[in-house]
């Protein structure tokens, strides 16, 4: 129910100002008489009550106690004279509107438990309501049962209001009216009215649950809706049914009356509301926006203040109250005003942290005009005397809590309408006032009616903690005036869980109960509690007190450098919390040695330390220390370590930790951007904080940023950026020790670890998104036992990757390896059962609780006593079917190379470099490996290779070999029967068989080797003398090219070790006529013997053996040409041995036919012409060309190019000499004519070449071709079969030159098409020649002559070629060679 006191004969505010003074006095006298009568009755009633309470016989035997068990305070016994004396002191100024409504207000207070009073600013409600309660007999001094509690939002307002009421009651401060604020108590025993902050009343609820020391509570300035006020309003509503004698008065100038009335409704009836209208003097509101026009863009707040003060100065005398957001703005505005106004103008600051002396200056009268620069501390309750004008900047610094970032943000925001009206009401108390608002009227109209309650913009952790400690209802059901949002409640619980104050079910823990006993922020309380356990209580109390007050260090704008220099001695590069300890010790020492308070203040000022804040710091510390000592805690005597101290602090700052993000160079940054980044330096580095926020270190921080990877901050403040203040370096491992309950642990990549014998996973722990550690191996069994057991059996037991005494592992592994070898040999993967079946076998046998090696070993040791083979697998269980045909006969374990059994291994993995059959070749026998032998692979794999070769044939040829499987099997059987296997090149044997069976003549080029799979070729693994792999390749020629010389050297070393034995064997062979050396010779390196000039040493063995360790090596003996004689040598390479042996035989032939050769040399036909052409071609001499002709003739006459016709003993040698004598003359004539012909054709080509110099590319190409064909000694070195084609090659050059006359486009295109083939061949040839003359692959030399034939086919088709050639065909041949 709302009671509105409006009298018909009461004029409006303006009319009231015009009422004749006599009428006002007459009405006031009448009201005083009425009030006096009521007061007398109340006093009489109160006297009776007091008298009754004072009687001992009527007193209860046991004094009632409140919820916490504290007895009610004993009331002083007052006489009637004392009560009447107090009543006489009470006077109500008639000029105040609230005095005119005294009777109505007193009537409502007497009839209702809760009253809502709305009065305009300046109506006098703050000072008159306590006196009205006294007049009703409430308050101890007036005969009541308790104090009249009167709350104010700020300490300054509480103290100033108490002084004003005491002055009006003509009593000393504390006698009737006193105050109690933080660190100050001016209240004597027997006092009636107690002014205090709402925080003091809230703290008293912990010891006086029902607030029995009060019989009346006035909540003033309720419109501010601070967190304390909202909680008190809800708390009072809960205790009102238990305290029917308690009166509650809610008052403010701009209150949302209906909301409060509904809050205190009883049985659906809202609390009564009374509106007190009118004020002493009117207030004119003027709007003066700072930037009203385009020309005002350069104006700022301070320009607007200066202009407003000037305007008010023209209005007349009177003090000015300027409202600003904060202390920094006050300092800036004061500086601007001092520069603008004359010296006699007094400029005073007013904010909450002013010293008492400075506060007194505000309330003292002054003859000079005063300009008071105030924060919103002067907005309510606090009345600055003499204020006639107000300048309202329209801004205030509002604290808002970010639920996402978990930080409090002090933001400057526009004030609400209610706050603006409060500010306007501060003037017009001594005369008609003027309020200038530095914004326009439309801006005012668009603003909210009321400021958001603090409960909607603050952390509720402290409120929840107090409520749980007091045993109140859950915060969700608590009767707040305006219920907080769900996310705010959730955030509060999360913070308490972070501190360990509540558990997962949000029940209060022992830590929470301990935190609730400390009347400070829960985070700071948590630090103190942890410090008790970590031996750092003494230091943390000092730091906690410092965090509860404003920073004691001053850093004025005009003296920043001096302040920074003075604060250097307190700085610490590791922690700014240690700076607090240094300042504390400095101040304690200064206090101990001070001579006077003035000198102490001067010393603090010289060091840029605020003496007032230092005193407040000491007071807070004293209070905290007293409280912890009362609980039985003991301070540490030993200095704590850095870790102990900061771990204690970290417990309350877990949400304020951060990890450094190094500034990374900008991608594709310009030079200017790079320079800017370097300039920014450390400022460009930010920290990633909890929940993904980013913050920067405070620029003035003393902590070194270079090594500060992890930091914690005392607070996170958002201004232009989010800054961390009061920071310290920490170790990331501390987070794991302190906050294990907050770590969010995730697990990834569970896998079996053979070494540890268990399934492990990588553990990653994060604290609010910050990675504390990652990739930490932990046992997965305690996390997910079922999955850990599955991995243990699948990857550990089934794969036999466990260590221990497990005989079944060795047995099953050996059995599986045997079956896998069968799969590799047969090249099929359907022999061994699937892994899932093996896993299922172990899963069915091993108990469910076993998931690591230790548990398996313990169970297995017990199992083998009764069932020793329960875990043994059988061959039948592991094989799907029998691998028929996979025998050692067709898949041998070794291949004999040069007398050494080289191991063969089989592997089935298409695409792998090990796929197929691999021959392990020791370095010593590399040159013994026969390409023909390895071309046949092994018996079990040759069928597949032959079938693949037949499939590569063109369809018109392949159709004669169908069906391919039967044809292949018949070929293999024929090859084995004819002993072709391993003795004849596979291609040759297959061509021969196809010719026999189908009468089709195949050529090697018909087979497309490039279509064959890699496993169709033998894989070679080259080993050193210790059995270590050197190289692996399927190209035997490539291995010999790279390692042939090294293999030969290794073989020579073996020969040298057995040289003496070899000589003895040779001598025995010479002495024995019926026992040839045969298989008792040696291999590798040169075996020196006597000089041989004729064949007089019997039969030359095909092989010679050599003992190397336990192995017998074989070598190829040969006669080596030593110019004047021959010597018997042994080689590891059969090709090289044949080449050397052919030259050696040729030397013996020259010696035997010495006289014949002299005669033939003189009778070479056209020798003179040949010599002249030869000199022009090669620069050689006639003697050289004659020697070459005779050498070629001897080779042809003796058929030395064919190894089958080479002599093996003295008889065959003599027969060869006799045969050569009869043919040599004719052959010399034939060779001479061929040489003359090719030289003549060369001369023709050279003439044509000189005529095409204008075509540079063609000229160069033909010149290089001639140089390649006619190298020095080409007549002797070129095989006669190829030498016979030289004239045709030179003719082709002539024809090419002639065709260039009709155009070069076609020639140029053909050169371009042929160039890649020539470059490939030249590159490979050069590479192989570096390994030696005999290292060049025979197929590479064949390709060289194919290139010559390709030139004929491209440039002189008329001359024809002995075989079909084309660029495409040669590309295929090259690809086949590359395999």
Précis, in short:
This protein has 1379 residues and is an alpha/beta fold. It has 51 helices and 32 strands.
Write the layout of secondary structure elements.
Layout: H1 13-18, H2 21-54, H3 80-89, H4 97-100, H5 102-111, E1 114-119, H6 125-135, E2 147-152, H7 155-168, E3 177-181, E4 184-186, E5 193-197, H8 198-204, E6 214-219, H9 227-239, E7 247-252, H10 257-263, E8 273-276, E9 283-287, H11 301-315, E10 319-323, H12 327-340, E11 346-350, H13 356-363, E12 370-374, E13 387-392, E14 395-402, E15 407-414, H14 417-424, E16 433-437, H15 441-446, H16 461-470, H17 486-499, H18 510-516, H19 522-534, H20 537-547, H21 560-567, H22 577-592, H23 597-606, H24 611-630, H25 642-650, E17 657-661, H26 671-680, E18 686-689, E19 694-697, E20 710-718, E21 722-729, H27 732-738, E22 744-753, E23 758-767, E24 770-779, H28 785-797, H29 807-826, H30 835-845, H31 853-863, H32 875-878, E25 894-897, E26 900-907, E27 916-922, H33 931-935, H34 939-951, H35 955-958, H36 964-977, H37 986-998, E28 1019-1023, E29 1029-1033, H38 1036-1057, H39 1059-1071, E30 1104-1108, E31 1111-1121, E32 1126-1131, H40 1134-1152, H41 1154-1162, H42 1167-1178, H43 1182-1198, H44 1210-1250, H45 1256-1269, H46 1274-1277, H47 1280-1283, H48 1286-1299, ...
